[in-house]
């Protein structure tokens, strides 16, 4: 079977790596891919936004299944375009992807169908938002409505901070049209959790839980990033809590979308806060999360292709996922300055020295035959162990073997577990 993976980050490297273990996969293409992915798949120089070119490539190369990694092409309607051309593609439709593409849409669904989440107000006018922020409680969370690569969420402690964020979004328009609507949300307290589920339009099959480290600095300080590390399973989620998440959040939102005339197929991601009142939704994503995918997929024993086919065919109720009885820890190496401005093009040394962990490339490319940095998050080191402590020790021991100018990574991933 020929498979095309759309994307070029650590998540896609993890997907390609898992697919390469399937006996039924004969050829993997990845568009655009990266330096690490190129060892397992043929990289194709088409960006994720070029939906028409991706479709033509899939038709010309007789691709059996396309798997979409990032959110942008999903929100832009890649699934609808491929299906119109008779191509099999794994991911939600344009309408279904609105669960991630518009936080306001997601919040409205949750409010209407009583899915647990924080209280909120949405604004499309600057002065109205400013008036509310003068009178509201603090701290609050301010979010850009649309896609912002994980960087459109701000916790603000007072009105001065709130006005700065509002100016960034609605006046300076740092997130472009994604900031046309802003959501002001109550601050939720507890432990964060990430839950992915395969959804076939009807049935929901939850995966192993994970925990993401979003802040750039140790002790969860500094601005939000696309993720500086992750661990799986989430140490704060037991079977009872996972069951509660399935019954009160995952199944109800799939049902809610169906009632609204939207059939959801693909991976549904719930970013949650485990509060004293129970799990509450922070956000939904319409795809595999990053870097949680890098810790979840190495623990999956079931053939990923088999699960994807069952999802597309509406046969998830016949499937049970099998998992390794291990812990996984991912530490992300980033470029100096990330998530702000950073330089690219630095040679990465020592990759071949890593023997005990996976290196999932994110922002890497080839230059003059050498692997160089090409993004803010450069790679993730993923180690497995019988305990978090063991996996953590392996991950940090292995990451020290790799270097590039300005390398930065948090030193506290999985600490204390």
UniProtKB/TrEMBL annotation:
GO terms for molecular function: ATP binding; metal ion binding; phosphoribosylamine-glycine ligase activity. Transmembrane segments: none annotated. Keywords: ATP-binding, Ligase, Manganese, Metal-binding, Nucleotide-binding, Purine biosynthesis. Pathway: Purine metabolism; IMP biosynthesis via de novo pathway; N(1)-(5-phospho-D-ribosyl)glycinamide from 5-phospho-alpha-D-ribose 1-diphosphate: step 2/2. PROSITE patterns: ATP_GRASP, GARS. GO terms for biological process: 'de novo' IMP biosynthetic process; purine nucleobase biosynthetic process. InterPro entries: ATP-grasp, ATP_grasp_subdomain_1, PreATP-grasp_dom_sf, PRibGlycinamid_synth_ATP-grasp, PRibGlycinamide_synth, PRibGlycinamide_synth_C-dom, PRibGlycinamide_synth_C_sf, PRibGlycinamide_synth_CS. Its cofactor is Mg(2+); Mn(2+). Its EC number is 6.3.4.13. The keyword Manganese applies. It catalyses: 5-phospho-beta-D-ribosylamine + glycine + ATP = N(1)-(5-phospho-beta-D-ribosyl)glycinamide + ADP + phosphate + H(+). Pfam families: GARS_A, GARS_C, GARS_N. It is an enzyme of class 6 (ligase). SMART domains: GARS_A, GARS_C. Residues 107-313 form the ATP-grasp domain. Belongs to the GARS family. HAMAP family: GARS. This is Phosphoribosylamine--glycine ligase. The lineage of its organism: Bacteria, Bacillati, Bacillota, Clostridia, Thermoanaerobacterales.
